[in-house]
Amino acid sequence: MGIIEDHHRFKDIVKGRIKENFKKYVTHGEMIGKRENDFVKIPLPSIDLPRFKYGKKQSGGVGQGQGQPGDQVGQDGQPGQGQAGNEPGEHQLEAELTVDELAEILGEELELPNIEPKGKKNVETEIYKYTGRSPVGPEGLRHFKASYKEALKRSIASGTYDPEDPVIVPIKRDMRYKTVKTRVKPRTNAVVIYMMDVSGSMGEEQKEIVRLESFWINAWLKKNYKGLETRFIIHDAAAKEVDEKTFFSTSESGGTLISSAYKLCKQIIDEDYPPSEWNIYPFHFSDGDNWSAEDTKLCVKLIKDFFLPHTNMFGYGQVESKYGSGQFGKDLQKVFPGDERLVVSQIESRDKIVNSIKDFLGKGR
Known about the structure:
This protein has about 375 residues and is an alpha/beta fold. The protein has three domains: about 1-50 and about 90-110, no CATH class; about 125-185, no CATH class; about 185-360, Rossmann fold. About 35% of the residues lie in helices and about 25% in strands. The chain has helices at about 1-20, 20-25, 100-110, 145-160, 205-225, 245-250, 260-270, 295-310, 325-335, 355-360, and strands at about 35, 40-45, 90-100, 120-135, 175-195, 225-235, 240, 280-285, 315-320, 340-345. Strands 4, 5, 6, 7, 8, 9 and 10 form a seven-stranded mixed beta sheet that branches. A three-stranded antiparallel beta sheet has the order 1-2-3. The protein is flat and about 90 Å long. It starts with a helix and ends with a helix. The mean pLDDT is about 80.
């Protein structure tokens, strides 16, 4: 029990350190690169748990020897001596936390409300597991190990057990059989579809902002939906679906037709994610440049007629770049004022990522 308590105590200390420097961990990507399945390695300065340390014998200590009022305890007041060293003075510790634990910290720090899945998209399923044991049952469900343990306990208790000749013969009352336990488990399906403008105006810094923000969005949604799927679309003047690695590493140039991404996103939803069964979260990231006002009108129509009625929310994140006009975000805010189903978030720099996550997830939709 002592080891378990120490482990929990250490986890609490690690979480405390992350909370103290929460903005740093959100805006720096080194830990995101250290994901292993559902675990993330967090680089932290060395953490020493408080403990007593014994000194050398006859070396004095607190309350021993001569002293004057105002003298510092544990220090002799002399400057350090010797040459400067060439070894690092602080060592990094990598502590493992689950994505769920990071999401919990995110929710606490940003005061995010839990998401409540809507309508038929929240489906309950019955799970049957042979986890129970019973003294009666069909022979096909006899549990050999449990029966043997009962026979062994009876033999030891009656004094008939011989370590030199450990023969155990189960009798009828020793038999144990598997029994079914039924558990109702809520099953919620959710998909996040990320779309990103990869035209020439979206540089490496802009894509890194999107990468960081999408990690935290995913972490929070995974905490609310255990069956979360992700899809990725990149676009300039044309759109295509890619894997996650390609999504964050592609560098292209050319014009920008935002509607190409929205059309492909709609196609993916129509083919794979019926809105009556899935919680759907499209997120689009761009610097706000679009090829023409006519294409913007087409995007607005797709949002109004398809995305808003059929998804939980539609998120548009406008990442500021020195080449982007930012006009598309302004147009959306003008057409959809006050509509909570559409969230437009301005992301001027890494320091604004925390605010943008709050914009997107703060409504609990």
